[in-house]
Amino acid sequence: MKYLHTYYNERSIKDHPFEIDQSKHYHTIVVIPAHDESLEILEKTMKSLLMNKQTAHQYLCLVLINHRASDSDEIGDASASLFKQLKARYQDAPAWIDIQIRYQVFDQKKAGVG
Asked: In terms of Cα–Cα distance, which of 36, 26, 33 is closest to 6?
């Protein structure tokens, strides 16, 4: 599958691939880690996508929130809060935007990180 644009963190897609619906063609894939600036980064990205008339009506946009933590309990509350905020903020988004939030927890030692 080919993406015309990848925002913010292309490496995490390669290192930690997500299951993506192969029947859909996504113009853009956005991967954003969960931290205090996540909503701000997503807001800027969404505004950019909404202003791009070429993508409207032609492609779907896949937005992934990539959670990386060794402690699943630690991100549980933050994930739920972030999900609620995103759903509320983009409930009126055009149909061509497909917002998906994926949670990914992995052992940093096994992954060779840290």
From this structure: 26
Q: Is residue 109 part of a domain?
A: no
The answer to whether the CB of 38 falls within 8 A of the CB of 63 is no
Instruction: Identify whether 32 is part of a domain.
Output: yes
Q: How many domains does the chain have?
A: 1
37 part of a folded domain: yes
**Position 107 in a domain:** no
pTM over 0.85: no
Closest to 97 (Cα-Cα) out of 27, 39, 36, 40: 27
Distance of CA 16 to the CA centre of its chain: 13
Burial of 8 (C-beta count, 10 Å sphere; 0-12/13-18/19+): middle
Distances (CA, A) of 76 to 44, 59, 66, 89: 25, 31, 13, 20
| Per-residue model confidence as pLDDT tens digits over 50-94 | 666 555 444 555 555 555 544 444 545 555 666 566 667 666 665
Query: d(Cα 82, Cα 70) in Å, to the nearest integer?
Result: 19
